[in-house]
Amino acid sequence: MKPEPQLRSLSIYIVAAEESGDALGASLARALVAQGGGAIRLSGVGGRAMAAAGIVSPFPIEELSIIGLNAIPRRLPMILRRIRETADAIVAARPDALVIIDSPDFTHRVARRVRRAAPSIPILDYVSPSVWAWRPGRARAMRAYVDCVLAILPFEPAAHVRLGGPPCIYVGHPLIEHIAELRPNADEAQRRKADPPLILALPGSRTSEIGRLIGIFGDAIARTATRVGPIELVLPTVPQLASRVGEAVAGWAVTPRIVVEPAAKWGAFRTARAALAASGTVTLELALAGVPTVAAYRLPLIEELFLRIAGLQATLHSVILANLVLGENVVPEFLQRDCTPQQLADALVPLLSDTPQRLRQVEAFGSLDRIMAPGAAAPSAKAAATVLDIARRGRRDLAAAAAAAATGQS
Fold first, then answer.
1. Per residue, what are the HEC states of the chain?
2. What range defines the domain where residue 205 resides?
3. Is there a domain that residue 4 lies in?
4. Model pTM score
5. Residues 53, 148 within the same domain
6. pLDDT at 111
């Protein structure tokens, strides 16, 4: 009897530059090891989650965090140095595949340098840039240095086809792997209906976002309580911002319970009747949890003008992620000058009782599982399978690899 052939050892390099990408990289790393039969060598740049999955970063990715245009000049030399160092390390390692995750201002610059210096290394981009929202020309430009995009939003493959981007495969959103944490059990569903209603306040996960929104949110909640009576308020945040948030809400008319642990956050999601949230991934989390939401956002005027000049697409029907996935404007959004306490309260109050506004959101959110389903495999497993397939084939056979991977989309 012939011995079974041994799998060729593969080297995968993963680069993530912020916390959300670090979590995604950690899930991908675990899935790669599980599917690789012990023949996978991992290295890369990441944070604590990737370190726990066996990838120790050469520098802390917190160095790369830039919030606001004012911070860019001061931090730019260090960031450019990290881009060069990361690209040089990848070229020296000559991995079978490079996976860059989100944070395109950093990771795409790394990818371009790697492509110039070592064109034989396949490069996959896990999480598409928002080419469907602004700077659509990036999609076509990516073809020069990205061989395959692993999309986490179901409408993105069609967007890349329309815009002339690289081959793009929908692997599924990482939230799909955590649905059980978002959905209430029978007791939690009853708490959603009980009084006082539990409201979530989510003014953002960055210092600048909180600074612009937290006062407006506090005033909107106060106006809501004046109209509906007693409410219970929960404000999830990240540990490093807890003290800043605590100081900012000290004068609120309704004192929120601040939670920082993931378990406490998801517990609040499972029992909340409604939410007031900053635009971002959290709107999709809330939609998957079945929590009717009012979304809001404000940028400084100079950044708003910069985005418009850079090519923000006025044709988008919404900037709210939940609405974009659903394909309709279900979650009301109040942006820039429309983001006022009175308008937010006017939209939030109807979501606290059995109104057409609440029913419309709940019914629409019920279709998300069907819209976002990536197939039988978990998103991280599907992403890992595509990475391994392309790594084994190499760039010379990449067209065939992409075609083979694309057959698993439905």
1. CCCCCCCCCEEEEEEECCHHHHHHHHHHHHHHHHHCCCCEEEEEECCHHHHHCCCCCCCCHHHHCCCCHHHHHHHHHHHHHHHHHHHHHHHHHCCCEEEEECCHHHHHHHHHHHHHHCCCCCEEEECCCCCCCECCHHHHHHCCCCCEEEECCCCHHHHHHHHCCCCEEECCCHHHHHHHHHCCCHHHHHHHHCCCCEEEEECCCCHHHHHHHHHHHHHHHHHHHHHHCCCEEEEECCHHHHHHHHHHCCCCCCCCEEECCHHHHHHHHHHCCEEEEECCHHHHHHHHHCCCEEEEECCCHHHHHHHHHHCECCCCCCCCHHHHHHCCCCCCEEEHHHCCHHHHHHHHHHHHCCCHHHHHHHHHHCCHHHHHCCCCCCHHHHHHHHHHHHHHHCHHHHHHHHHHHHCCCC
2. 178-371
3. no
4. 0.84
5. yes
6. 98
